[in-house]
Every structure is written in structure tokens, then in C-alpha cells.
Design brief:
Layout (H helix, E strand, L loop, with lengths): L1 H12 L3 H58 L10 H14 L3 E8 L1 E2 L3 H9 L8 E3 L5 E3 L5 E2 L4 E3 L16 H13 L3 E2 L3 E2 L8 E10 L13 E10 H8 L8 E8 L5 E7 L12 E4 L8 E7 L1 H7 L3 H64 L6 H30 L10 E4 H18 L3 E6 L5 E4 L1 H17 L6 E9 L2 E8 L6 H5 L22 H11 L3 E7 L3 E7 L1
Helix pairs in contact: 2-6, 2-8, 8-9, 10-11, 11-13
Length: about 575
């Protein structure tokens, strides 16, 4: 249990604790947010694919229904007699009402050259300008050239919108002719490639569906290409079929393209539905292979737009990230609070030790001074007159008072929380402190026959600091100067002023220090016990407390010393 507490304390105290918590917390927050982001992205992708699949199925059904309608129209032409134009129009209009995807329905007979004149004259009875036509190199309609066979648009509904197609020979265009001949030879209905519908100004992409009609052909198993009557033809506009198929209300933010697969590898784009900018950063492209329809293998390819992805996104990943950062911040603050509190307790315990050491130092110094004075009197009592004895007793009384004052402070600090001691700054005269110090140490100064002097090189002798701390600091430095200065030595105290700061110099001609001692003078983990010139004892902690007191009052201390020549303390405050 103690070991666990020790490890916990070590962890809290470690300077790496907070950065590690930050790193772990932030990493976990980003990981959770990213995981949810990826999960959400997968859900969006699944939803997107389901929408596309449903639309693709609806699109296929729409194509199938329209192709079935062509079979209905084909029943008119399966009898031996060709139905009249009016019968064709009636049935065609009925079919187009049910299937709005048809742009036009047509009857295209197979006409050999020797029958061209018959077919043209028959229609000219009702349409005087009717003739077989084709397009020239300038894309203009002209009379069809003489060829072995023709595939003219003989019936067309609606007529007004498709007037230019009336009489147009589909066999005059190579691609359409190839589709017609393939359907004739195979005896199967086929769909042409992509066709630009000249009668449509917007979205002209479309295709033609050819349903071959044979003479006496009750079954496709017994057909003869030579018995071809013609073709029932349906003109499809892709945009109309896509709109009719959109009964699933697929999002308008999905771009879909209908592709024609030629050889299993290459594909041609036939039509693009809802052409908008897609999100190139997200690979959501979905492909749906439509079942083969009348010889055509079409592929539906869909891509989500930027708006689609944005609409499906939620703010949960961001919320998770923010929540993680907030939680990590709170955890860091908690550990920081524990660490700071622990540091404060450690510092306050150190402060407690320092104060107790200071009190011990002052009491020991006062008692030591009285001990020296009493020994001197006892050794040669008869040689002292009343005046000298009075001074000695007065000095002993001052020391007793000082010790009493120190003990009173100890009691006061223990009652008012020794650990919470802070400097109480005020304005006071430095001369008052030096007079107090001089009077305090005068018996020892006299005893060691020291030359002690104070010099003030400024009229402004007032400083702003904690008076008791500065007094204790100066008294400790001067005490050391007296302690480590030989008899008949000299101690000088000087006060200078520079702008807003005061410089206090305490110089002695004592034993001094070597460079190693000087460098380690204020190291708290070192003690510097050194006996005085008169055999005075030392705890080695007085200067450490002095340094702390000066630091608390924003004062700087600098020490210069030469072994055998003396020491100078310079305090800037």
C-alpha cells in the first residue's frame, strides 16, 4: 500500500505527468473521433449504395415495361395485312399515355428498291410531299439515293414533333443500318447505340429499340430473314426514362451515368443524370450492372456530390473530439492541482524546517554570546569594575530579550500557520536596522576588538520590504562577518543608491573563502559548517535562510571573497 502511494506521488510529482496525460488524452480523443468518423462514413456509403441499387432496379423495370409495350404495338403488324395509319396512331397514343418515356413510336417497313415507288405513291395520296429521304454532307434532308433496300419511317406518332423523321431512311446511316440488319438476321429485337435526337434541344441523348416483324412468324424459332416485314421502333429519350424511374425519390445530390459496355472492358457514356460536382476525396463510386436488354449491356455508375456527403454527416465526431479535449483538460487541471498542492506542501515543509533552523540559529547565537560573556566574567571577575559589569549584564539582558522575542515569534507562527508565512512589506529606514544590529553585536565587537563602521552615501535611506526578514538577513550576514574576522579586524557597512535601488555592502577583513566554498555557498543540499576565529560554532544554514528571505523581497545578493583577505556581501534591493 505504501509502495503504491509512493509510485502515485512520484507520478504526480514528475514533470512529465501533465504532458503525458495531455498526449494520451488528446490521442484517445482523436482516435475515438476518427473511429466514429470512419463508422459514419461506412454508414453513408451503405445508404448511398442502397439508394443507387433501388434506383437501378427501378430503371431496369422502366426499360422492360416500355419494351413490352412495343410487343403490344407489334401485334398490329403480325397479320398478313398492314394496319392503316389511323389504327397505328390510335394504338400508339394509347401506349404513350401509359408509358411517358417514349419520345416517338414508329413503323419502319423493309422496302426493296423495286417497291420504293409503290410505297412513296401510296403515302403521297395523303402526304403529297412524302418521299424516302436521307441527310447529305451538310446535314440537310434530301431524296434518298438509290440502293437495294430501304428502311424508311413510314408511320410515326406524334407526327408534329417528328415531321422531319417522316420518310427518313434509317438504312442511310451505317450504325443504324448495322443494327437493323443484325436484328433481321438474328430474328431478335435490338437496341441501337447512343443517338442524338435532333428534335430535342435539351438532353438529346437517346436510343432506338427495333422489334423485327416477320411474315407468318408465330415463333422466333422458325423465322426467315427473307420474310421480314419491317420493324416496330421505339424512340427513347434517356432523361425521360430516368425521370420516370425515379419513383424511389433518390437524392438529387447523386450523380448517375448510364454506360454502354462494348467488349466487356471499354465503356461509352450514354447519359449523365443529375450532373453535379462530385466529392473527389471520397471514393464512394458504385457500379450496378443492369441485366441485358435486347442485346445491350448497360452499366449504371453513381457518385455522391459534395452536398450529399455534407448532408449525411453529423457533428458527433466533432462533439466527441471536443468532449475528449475538455475531459483531458479537466484531468490535467486535476493533476496540476494535486501536483501544485503537493509541491506547496513540500515547499512549506522546507519552509518550516528553515524557520525552525532560523529560530534555532538565533537562539543558539544568543545563548552562545551570553555563554562567552559569562565565561569571561567568571574567569576574571575581580578585574571588572561596576561599569564594565553593567555593560556585560546589559548585553546579556539584550540577548535574553532577543531570545524571548524569537520564542514569541515561534509561538505566534505556530498559531497563525507557520507554513503560510509571506513577506509583509512596508517603508522603513535602513539606518534603524543598522543601529539595532550594532547595538545587538556591540559586546562581541568589543570583545574581539573589531573596527565596525557604517557609511551612508545617500540621503534616501528608506527601503520597501519586510522589515523583520531584512533585519534577520543583515544580522545573519554581519554575525558571520564578526564570527570569521580575527581580533582587531575591520567590518564596514556601506549604503549606496542607484536610481530606484539601494546597494548594501558588508565587507570584512576575515578569513575569506576559496572558490569552491564560494560556488557552493547557497546550495541548499549542502551545509557549510565552519568554526569561527574565536571558536564559535556554526550550523551552516544561516546563509541559506538569508538567501530565501532576500528572494522573498525581490532582493539580489552577490558575494565576493578571497581566501585570507576577507569577504564582501552586496545586496541590491
Amino acid at each position: 500500500m505504501k509502495r503504491k502511494r509512493y509510485y502515485l506521488k512520484s507520478l504526480i510529482d514528475s514533470k512529465y505527468c501533465i504532458p503525458v496525460i495531455w498526449a494520451i488524452g488528446l490521442s484517445l480523443s482523436i482516435l475515438l473521433a476518427r473511429s466514429y468518423y470512419i463508422l459514419e462514413q461506412k454508414k453513408i456509403e451503405i445508404k448511398f449504395k442502397n439508394e443507387v441499387d433501388q434506383f437501378a432496379a427501378s430503371l431496369h423495370r422502366e426499360f422492360e415495361l416500355n419494351l413490352v409495350s412495343l410487343h403490344t404495338l407489334a401485334t398490329l403488324f403480325k397479320s398478313n395485312e398492314i394496319p392503316s395509319y389511323q389504327m397505328f396512331i390510335t394504338e400508339s397514343q394509347s401506349i404513350r399515355k401509359r408509358n411517358s418515356s417514349f419520345l416517338a413510336l414508329e413503323w419502319v417497313p423493309w422496302v426493296k428498291h423495286e417497291m420504293r415507288s409503290f410505297y412513296e405513291k401510296k403515302h403521297q395520296q395523303e402526304f403529297s410531299d412524302f418521299s424516302f429521304s436521307e441527310k447529305d454532307s451538310f446535314n440537310q434532308l434530301v431524296n434518298a439515293k438509290i440502293r437495294k433496300e430501304y428502311f424508311p419511317v413510314y408511320y410515326v406518332d406524334p407526327f408534329a414533333k417528328n415531321k422531319n423523321a417522316f420518310g427518313y431512311d434509317l438504312g442511310s446511316e451505317k450504325e443504324r443500318y448495322n443494327t437493323l440488319k443484325s436484328s433481321q438476321l438474328l430474328g431478335k429485337p435490338l437496341i441501337s447505340g447512343n443517338v442524338k435526337l435532333v428534335q430535342e434541344k435539351t438532353n438529346p441523348e437517346g436510343c432506338l429499340a427495333f422489334l423485327p416483324i416477320f411474315i407468318d412468324n408465330e415463333s422466333q424459332k422458325n423465322y426467315d430473314p427473307k420474310n421480314l416485314k419491317g420493324f416496330v421502333l421505339g424512340v427513347f429519350k434517356f432523361s425521360k426514362i430516368f425521370e420516370a424511374a425515379n419513383n424511389t425519390n433518390i437524392s438529387k445530390e447523386i450523380r448517375m451515368s448510364l454506360l454502354n459496355q462494348k467488349d466487356g472492358i471499354s465503356k461509352d457514356t450514354l447519359f449523365t443524370y443529375q450532373s453535379k460536382q462530385v466529392d473527389a476525396q471520397i471514393n464512394f463510386t458504385h457500379q450496378f450492372d443492369l441485366p441485358i436488354l435486347w442485346g445491350k449491356k448497360w452499366v449504371l455508375v453513381a457518385d455522391p456530390t459534395i452536398t450529399y456527403i455534407k448532408n449525411e454527416r453529423t457533428s458527433y465526431p466533432l462533439i466527441i473530439l471536443i468532449a475528449g479535449v475538455v475531459f483531458t483538460s479537466l484531468l490535467v487541471l486535476l493533476f496540476y492541482s494535486f501536483s501544485k498542492r503537493n509541491t506547496q506542501l513540500t515547499q512549506l515543509n522546507i519552509m518550516k524546517s528553515k524557520f525552525l533552523s532560523l529560530i534555532s540559529h538565533d537562539v543558539r547565537g544568543g545563548i552562545g554570546t551570553m555563554d562567552v560573556l559569562l565565561k569571561l566574567v567568571l574567569e576574571d571577575f575581580e578585574s571588572y569594575d561596576k561599569t564594565q559589569l553593567k555593560e556585560i549584564i546589559k548585553s546579556i539582558e539584550q540577548n535574553t530579550t532577543s531570545i524571548h522575542f524569537t520564542l514569541e515569534n515561534l509561538i505566534s507562527w505556530s498559531k497563525n500557520d507557520l507554513l503560510a508565512l509571506k513577506p509583509e512589506k512596508s517603508l522603513f529606514s535602513i539606518i534603524e536596522l543598522f543601529e539595532n544590529i550594532t547595538e545587538y553585536f556591540q559586546p562581541i565587537i568589543n570583545l574581539k576588538s573589531l573596527k565596525f563602521s557604517t557609511h551612508y552615501f545617500t540621503n534616501d535611506t528608506y527601503i520597501h520590504a519586510d522589515k523583520n526578514m531584512i533585519l534577520a538577513s543583515l544580522r545573519n550576514i554581519i554575525s558571520n562577518a564578526i564570527k570569521y574576522t580575527q581580533k582587531e579586524g575591520e567590518i564596514q557597512v556601506r549604503l549606496h543608491q542607484s536610481k530606484t535601488k539601494h546597494l548594501i555592502e558588508i565587507e570584512d577583513t576575515g578569513i575569506g573563502m576559496n572558490p569552491d566554498e564560494l560556488n557552493r555557498l547557497f546550495e541548499y543540499n549542502k551545509t557549510h559548517k565552519k568554526e569561527g576565529t574565536g571558536g564559535e560554532s556554526s550550523t551552516g544554514i544561516g546563509l541559506l535562510i538569508t538567501k530565501d528571505f532576500l528572494d522573498m523581497n525581490n532582493a539580489k545578493v552577490h558575494v565576493e571573497s578571497t581566501l585570507g583577505k576577507g569577504t564582501t556581501f552586496k545586496i541590491t534591493i
